Amino acid sequence: MTGIAVREGEHRKPIHLGAHFPGVNNTTVWQVPEAGSQVDFASFEHLARVAEDARFDFFFLAEGLRLREHLGRIHDLDVVGRPDTFTVLAALAAVTDRLGLAGTINTTFNEPFEVARQFATLDHLSAGRAAWNMVTSSDAFTGANFRRGGFLPHADRYRRAAEFITVAQRFWDAWDAAAPQRVVHRGEQFTVDGYPELPRSPQGHPVLLQAGDSADGREFGARHADAIFTRHGTLEAGREFYADIKARAAAHGRNPDHLKVFPAATFVIGDSRAEADEKARHIRLLQVGPQTAINFLEQVWGRDLSDYDPDGPVPQEDPTFDAVTQGRTRQGDPREIAARYRARAEAGGLSIRELVIEMTARQQFVGTPEQVADGIDRYVQADACDGFILVPHLTPTGLDDLAARVVPILQERGAFRTEYEGTTLRDHLGLPPLSAAGSERRTG
Question: In the record, what terms sit under GO molecular function (predicted)?
Fold first, then answer.
C-alpha cells in the first residue's frame, strides 16, 4: 500500500475524527497489565488530553443503562456502566479548551426539559463544545431500571425521540434577552408547560449525533442530526450509506454537507504490516476469549452451549430461543441467523471462536502509520464517510500511538487540521451557526 500523493492545488476533503472512550463495547481489552480503569477520572482526562493535543473534533462517551445478564449472572461479554455522563463531561470541560464533548443520552428513559437543561449547562461550561448522541431503547430489560418500565415498539421509540428533540429544541430556543418565552407542548408522548432556566448557550443547541442504521433510524437522523454514527465499515457499504443518508437530508430541505457521517473504526499500528497483523490477531484473541465466544453464540441459539468446545464446530441444532441473555439482542429470526452462521463457518472452516471473531469484527485499520493514514484518508476522499470515531482497545492509552504517528501524516497531506480554527464544536465540524430560532443561518 502506498501513500496518497497530494498534487499542488488539489482539494482535500477535510477529515473529522472523534475519540471513543473504551469500555462500553466488546473491543476493550482488560487482561493486560497496561489496561487502566474505566471509572477513574484520570483515564477520561488522559484520553481527552491526547485527543485535544492531536486536534480531534470531539471526545465520545457511550453509556449503558443496565448491566447485562447471561444465564442469570452478570457477564463479561463487554463492559457496561461508568460514572454519570454529564458529570464526566462537565469535569472534562474544565481540563480541555477546544475538544468537543459528546455524550450518549437515551430519549426513551429521560425527559426533554431535564436533558435540554443538562446539555445547555454543558454547552455553557465548555464554551460551546457540547454534543448529544441521541439514542433510543425498545427493550423491557433496560426499562425495568426505570419507573415506567416496559418497552416501546421499534417504530414508537423513534416517534418518542422525534417529539423529545422537538420539545428540547423549544426550550433551547425559548430564551429571550428581555424575558424567557413560555414553552407549551401537548403531544402523544409529552405534555409540557414551563420556561427555560438558562440563557441561550454558545452553540444555541448542542451538536446532535444519532446512531441508527434502520430505515426509521436513517429518517430520524436525516431530519434531526448534525452527525450520524454508523456501523457500515467496508468502502462499498460506506459509500452506499453515505449517498443514502445525504439524499435523505436533502429531501428534508437540508444542506447534505451539514450532516456528517462517522463510522466507528478500530486500529492496530506496527512498524511493519506483518507486525501489525500479528498484533491485531493477538488483540482479537484477547477480545474474544473461549468463554466469550460461547456466550456470544448462546445469544443466537437461545440455549446453554457450555458443553461445546469453543475451538470446535458450530452447533448443528436449531435455536430454541430461550431468553438466556438479557440486555443484548440479535435482530432477525434466530433460525435464519444460525443458518447464516453455520454457512459462514463451513465455508471458511471456522471454529466457534474463529466464527465469533469474524462476526464481531468492526471496521479496522491495520498496518504501518502510513498504511493506517492511507486507509482513513481513502474512505473520506471516496465519500464513504466524513471521518471516523476511533475506538481504541486499551483504556486510557489506546489512542496515544495513533495521535503521535498517524495524525502527523494526515496533517502533512493537508487532510487534517494542524490547529483548531474555531472555538465551538460546530466550528470544528464545519457546521453553520444557528439563528435564535434554532435554524441554520443562511448566507449568500
Answer: monooxygenase activity
